[in-house]
Amino acid sequence: MYQYPFYPLPPQPSTIAPQKKLLKDKYEVLQIELGSGTYGKVKLVLDHVDKKKFAIKIISKSYMKQIFATQHILNELNYLQGCKHKNIVEYIEHFEDRDNIYIVLEYCGQGTLEELIKKKQKFTEEEAFHYFYQIAQAILYLHEKDIVHRDIKADNILLQNSNVKVCDFNWSIFLPNGGKAKPCSCGTTQYMPPEVIKKEKHDKGVDIWALGILLYYMLHGELLFRAKQKEELNEKICNKQSIKFNEKVSKECLQLFQQMLAHQRRINIQQVLNSDWVIKMLKGKQSQNSLELTPIKCKSIGQESTRVSIVSDSSRFSNYKFTAKSLYTESPFKQNNLNQGVQHPMIVRSSALDQNNPAFRVEKRYFY
């Protein structure tokens, strides 16, 4: 009898769903990358408990140590844990494994201000003010706590519904009592003021300059200083030159530009919020109720006499002793050994503009 040869059937596709990748047994990593940068990536995750989405910043420990970025990460954790403001991205928690550090942040689903500017190309003054005013409020909050962001730019402004969220505190520094930071190259070159380009000591004025550059970007659709070569770009920033403005920019806005982009005697954030342009725009907004307006009525803000002491246990990484120090940044908490969980107090100012939140809580955007 003839026997037919046996041909095995092709393997059937598995009906078993692939195992979901979970972090800390609660966060499902979705196949959406929100951003990437020097230290790692930012992914979208889903919390299985409350079904809420978050952004999670994944930072490689080995690469972080390799480029001496430990202090930058500690800064991000320290500042964002201590700040609670509607225009600053909210810190949820952080944890680690053998290879990475994970920072869980609120998810801002409308992208960045950079993406919006590229889409719209140019804003009207009314549109630009909507974002400018909220960013200025966040800077005011930080400066009243003697924190200087040092990397204000469109990429670091997240959009969530009608609110903006300032993020990325890697370059931030604590400068109490009107102090100045040591010379260093920090932030993003197109937004750097002359004193940073020249590697001079600098203070809170770096955020004012960057905010002025950002306002120009929104109104003109291009950055104020542009060049193919870094040396040419640095020269343009440092040399005083006439600035070409859109003819539709109001005289009050032009005056504010002149004050924010001054090489000497630059105005502070309180004076920005008391400028003629801001007051004019606020009056126009009051009838629309599109912003929660908290204008400052005095040319200088007197700090309350009450001072509070806070502690933070922000950074504890189980098997690592981070000893590398950045030459350019300082942490407000002097942490010699993170494994011991030593708590370090810091004195900060309290303010009437804290939106009913304590100056710092006792107990941090996307990463580019």
Q: Helicity range of the residues?
A: 25-40%
- The whole-angstrom Rg is 24 Å
Question: Unreliable runs, pLDDT <50, ≥5 residues?
Answer: 289-368
Give the N-to-C terminal Cα separation. 73 Å
Range of strand content = 15-25%
CATH superfamily of the domain at 113-285: Transferase(Phosphotransferase) domain 1
Indicate the CATH topology of the domain at 113-285: Transferase(Phosphotransferase), domain 1
Work out the number of β strands: 12
**Within the largest sheet, what's the order of strands?**
1-2-3-4-6-5
**CATH architecture call of the domain at 113-285:** Orthogonal Bundle
Oligomer type: single chain
Cross-link (Glycyl lysine isopeptide (Lys-Gly) (interchain with G-Cter in SUMO2)): 153
Binding site for ATP: 57, 168
Family: Belongs to the protein kinase superfamily.
Protein name: Protein kinase domain-containing protein
Protein model, in words:
Helix 4 packs antiparallel against helix 6. The strands form four sheets. A six-stranded antiparallel β-sheet has the order 1-2-3-4-6-5. It has a domain at 113-285: Transferase(Phosphotransferase), domain 1 (Orthogonal Bundle). The longest helix has 20 residues, at 125-144. The termini are far apart. 38% of the residues are buried. It has helices at 61-66, 70-82, 113-120, 125-144, 194-197, 205-220, 230-238, 251-260, 269-273, 276-285, and strands at 22-23, 27-36, 40-47, 52-60, 91-96, 100-106, 147-148, 157-160, 163-166, 173-174, 307-310, 346-349. By secondary structure, it is an alpha+beta fold. The chain contains ten helices and twelve strands. Helices cover 27% and strands 17% of the residues. Strand 1 and strand 2 form a beta hairpin. Residues 28-278 form the Protein kinase domain. Pfam families: Pkinase (PF00069).
